[in-house]
Amino acid sequence: MSIFEYNGGAIIAMVGKNCFAIASDRRLGVQLQTIATDFKKIYRVSDRLFLGLSGLATDAQTLFQRLMFKHKLYQLREERDMKPETFASLVSAILYEKRFGPYFIQPVIAGLGDEDKPFICTMDSIGAKELAKDFVVAGTASESLYGACEAMFKPDMEPEELFETVSQALLSSVDRDCLSGWGGHIYVVTPTEVKERILKGRMD
Fold first, then answer.
1. How far apart are CA 101 and CA 125, in angstroms?
2. Is-contact 196 180, C-beta < 8 A?
3. What is the reported pLDDT for 49?
4. 115 found inside a domain
5. Which CATH number do you get for residue 181?
6. Low-confidence residues of the chain, pLDDT below 70?
7. Are residues 52 and 41 in contact, defined by beta-carbon separation less than 8 angstroms?
8. Considering the domain boundaries, does residue 113 fall inside one?
9. pTM for the full model?
10. What is the widest separation between alpha-carbon atoms in the chain?
11. Would you state the pLDDT for residue 93?
């Protein structure tokens, strides 16, 4: 088993009309043994910027602390929040810096940029960015997530329709992966509000 699959997980980010959704499963496992069923994999950097980390849970928590330290320094110096594109470059730089002993994680970054334009991207463990205009996925369930998202995605969805689409894609995908699941955690972010919801899924 790959070290990236050791704790399991599934993360998805999808864009809508001036909004985006980011979702993850809630399982923390050690290989096939479930340890926790309410593990946080999506982190709120600011009201318009979210970060999902799949892979080795300890590395995810360590990296998030480093990123929040850098983001707070930026806020103090610049007196504003980081743009999603800037934050993605920061994550990429930190990962590449550790390329000879990398963090075993795959980040997903989602945010609202200038003129409320949604931005999503993912990268590998050494910071090679992959930008997308529709959706990005990460984690052990990524193969089934790709299939579900390809089938369900439509451009310019309103927030409620986007929530429904991401929920269905996440729940149907984690049912096909024994290393992720146990419900879902979803944020739907618009220019005016952030909606957080917990989904119930199969508990096996």
1. 10
2. no
3. 94
4. yes
5. 3.60.20.10
6. none
7. yes
8. yes
9. 0.91
10. 48
11. 96
